[in-house]
């Protein structure tokens, strides 16, 4: 990083996955960053020496530790929005936007932060402040943030204090978040004015320059606030759509005697389609895709254009969880009293994040059937649902089980040797194996003694 660039004083509100990555990367890029966190236990951990990063993200603990020890003047933590606004030029809002009861995005935390920022502007008299939405929010949230802040300023007779609302959605993926932030494909910025655009260019300049090797320089797309907000929801929904699309094709493969692995490969070879997000399985999960698709559908209805395709994307996804239960039923008949071993709990490999994890849905459905659940995940070590017995290895989970359901495609499962798999099959009551990610070779698994079932995989391969 070129630290000779002029630095910006930035506050980052919310020290969760996105906030910590954003704050730490911007400080590493040379800016002066103050993180605001209102969860006192989380804040206390982050203020410890060495700091305790509460999330599993490769490289993040080391980066935060490095910054706290080597550059404490550029990276610190507080619980006071008022204090940081007085002392910074821009604030990134990185708080959660969880799913509400009817699918809408719950924007309570965003509203609260916008209100507090406005109150802090009143107290400090700071002008030209830039409020940056980094949280994923529905289109037109920027307008609501502006209205909320203006109301507070007006109430205090400070209508004249100028500020700008910017949308800067985040595209990082958990597990590769630092690389995604430091070497992004694109930086999307929705602004209200040229000075907002200039501020954002200044903030991202060191990151763009550090990637300027001619091949991977990220594109910075400057647009209006509404378009930037829509880019995020449309992107996540499109990726989710690809997953549901391929899962629907997988279900047709099962009925027609075709094999989804071949079909997806054949489709992905077309450069207009490409191979990404075409893996059949138990469906998407995580903190973002399910809630973002639901929120996009909800706002489309509010705007008078119910985007029904998105509803279908979610329905197909739910169906993939039920498919697992159907496969178990046809292999084991009644599930009541049967022991099912779940391999993989996190919503994807290289994370311990269980938010929206497919495993939770599958466990819930199995428990409704009266099945007993044992589980193993290389990263998840806390009890994640009631009456789930956590084991400390894949073999320990399989011992005495009536079936294994592989839910998360951890490398550890893909790399199991023939010998290990053979002893796992022998240790089970029935060697039924439902491969919810088509991770293992059907023929190999059958030769090793399993009754193998994939998703959309031809039965006699
Ligand atoms: N996790 C991802 O992979 C990802 C990727 C892209 C975008 N996003 C979006 O980014 C946003 C944040 O996601 P996350 O995973 O970091 O959420 P998170 O729940 O891990 O983090 C939010 C943090 O904000 C804190 N917070 C809430 N209100 C606060 C307040 N008033 N003052 C200070 N701190 C406050 C919470 O205590 C928490 O630590 C969401 O909108 C999400 O959809 C997430």
Give the topology, please:
Elements: E1 9-13, H1 17-28, E2 32-36, H2 40-47, H3 60-70, E3 75-78, H4 81-86, E4 90-93, H5 108-124, E5 129-133, H6 141-155, E6 163-167, H7 177-182, E7 186-191, H8 194-210, E8 219-224, H9 225-256, H10 260-268, H11 289-302, H12 308-332, E9 339-343, H13 358-368, E10 372-376, E11 388-390, H14 394-398, E12 403-406, H15 411-414, H16 418-427, E13 432-435, H17 442-447, E14 451-453
Parallel strand pairs: 1-2, 1-4, 2-3, 4-5, 5-6, 7-8, 9-10, 9-12, 10-11, 12-13, 13-14
This protein binds nicotinamide-adenine-dinucleotide (NAD).
What is the structure about, briefly put?
It is built from 17 helices and 14 strands. By secondary structure, it is α/β, with parallel strands linked by helices. The longest helix has 32 residues, at 225-256.
Task: Describe the 3D structure.
- Helices cover 45% and strands 14% of the residues.
- The longest helix is centred in the middle third of the chain and has 32 residues, at 225-256.
- Strand 5, helix 6 (141-155) and strand 6 form a beta-alpha-beta unit.
- It is built from 17 helices and 14 strands.
- Helix 5 runs parallel beside helix 6 (141-155) and helix 12 crosses helix 13.
- The protein has two domains: 9-217, Rossmann fold, CATH 3.40.50.720; 236-453, Rossmann fold, CATH 3.40.50.720.
- It is elongated and about 75 Å long.
- The protein has 461 residues and is α/β, with parallel strands linked by helices.
- A six-stranded parallel β-sheet has the order 3-2-1-4-5-6, sandwiched between helices.
- It has helices spanning 17-28, 40-47, 60-70, 81-86, 108-124, 141-155, 177-182, 194-210, 225-256, 260-268, 289-302, 308-332, 358-368, 394-398, 411-414, 418-427, 442-447; strands at 9-13, 32-36, 75-78, 90-93, 129-133, 163-167, 186-191, 219-224, 339-343, 372-376, 388-390, 403-406, 432-435, 451-453.
- The structure holds nicotinamide-adenine-dinucleotide.
């Amino acid at each position: 990083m070129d630290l000779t660039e002029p630095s910006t004083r930035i506050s980052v509100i919310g020290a969760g996955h996105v906030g910590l990555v954003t704050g730490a990367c911007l400080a590493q890029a040379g800016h002066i960053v103050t993180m605001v966190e209102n969860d006192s236990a989380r804040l206390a951990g982050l203020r410890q020496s060495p700091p305790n990063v509460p999330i599993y993200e490769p490289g993040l603990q080391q980066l935060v530790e490095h910054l706290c020890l080597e550059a404490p003047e550029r990276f610190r933590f507080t619980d006071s929005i008022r204090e940081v606004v007085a002392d910074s030029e821009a604030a990134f809002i990185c708080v959660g936007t969880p799913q509400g009861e009817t699918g809408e995005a719950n924007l309570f935390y965003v509203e609260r932060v916008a209100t507090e920022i406005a109150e802090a502007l009143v107290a400090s008299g700071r002008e030209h402040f830039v409020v940056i939405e980094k949280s994923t929010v529905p289109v037109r949230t920027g307008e609501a943030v502006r209205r909320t802040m203006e109301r507070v300023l007006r109430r205090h007779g400070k209508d004249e204090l100028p500020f700008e609302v910017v949308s800067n959605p985040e595209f990082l993926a958990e597990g590769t978040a630092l690389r995604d932030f430091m070497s992004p494909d694109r930086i999307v910025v929705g602004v209200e004015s040229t000075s907002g655009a200039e501020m954002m260019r200044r903030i991202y300049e060191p990151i763009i320059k550090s990637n300027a090797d001619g091949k991977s320089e990220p594109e910075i797309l400057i647009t209006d606030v509404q378009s930037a907000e829509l880019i995020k929801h449309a992107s996540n929904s499109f990726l989710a759509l690809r997953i549901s699309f391929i899962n629907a094709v997988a279900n047709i493969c099962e009925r027609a005697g075709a094999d989804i692995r071949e079909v997806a490969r054949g489709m992905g070879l077309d450069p207009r389609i490409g191979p990404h997000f075409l893996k059949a399985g138990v469906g998407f999960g995580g903190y973002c895709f399910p809630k973002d698709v639901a929120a996009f559908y909800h706002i489309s209805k509010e705007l008078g254009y119910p985007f029904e395709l998105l509803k279908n994307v979610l329905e197909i996804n739910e169906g993939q969880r039920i498919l697992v239960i159907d496969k178990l039923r046809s292999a084991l008949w009644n599930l009541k009293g049967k022991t099912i071993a779940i391999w993989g709990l996190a919503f994807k490999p290289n994370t311990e994040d269980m938010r929206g994890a497919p495993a939770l849905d599958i466990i819930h459905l199995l428990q409704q059937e009266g099945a007993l659940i044992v589980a193993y995940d290389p990263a998840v070590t806390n009890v994640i649902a009631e009456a789930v017995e956590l084991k400390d290895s894949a073999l320990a989970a399989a011992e005495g089980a009536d079936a294994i359901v592989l839910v998360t495609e951890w490398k550890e499962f893909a790399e199991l040797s023939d010998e290990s798999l053979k002893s796992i099959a022998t240790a089970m009551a029935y060697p039924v194996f439902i491969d919810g990610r088509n991770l293992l070779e059907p023929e190999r698994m059958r030769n090793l003694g399993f009754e193998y079932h994939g998703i959309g995989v031809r039965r006699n391969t």
